[in-house]
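My current task is to audit a protein record that another person submitted. What it holds is a sequence and that sequence's fold in token form. Thanks in advance; the entry in question is below.
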Amino acid sequence: MKIATFNANSIRARLDTVIDWLATNEPDVLAVQETKVEDAKFPVEEFEGA
């Protein structure tokens, strides 16, 4: 099992970077901290498709 963590420091500003990294590394679990976004504005759809 591959577990990864990403310190986003604003997930919307780094969304393309995270999605590209996910496609390359294919972790089973990703923990994201410092998203700096309200739950309702988190880009869930982009992560579900990654």
Notes: The mean pLDDT is 93. The first helix runs from residue 15 to 25. The CA atoms of residues 6 and 24 lie 14 Å apart.
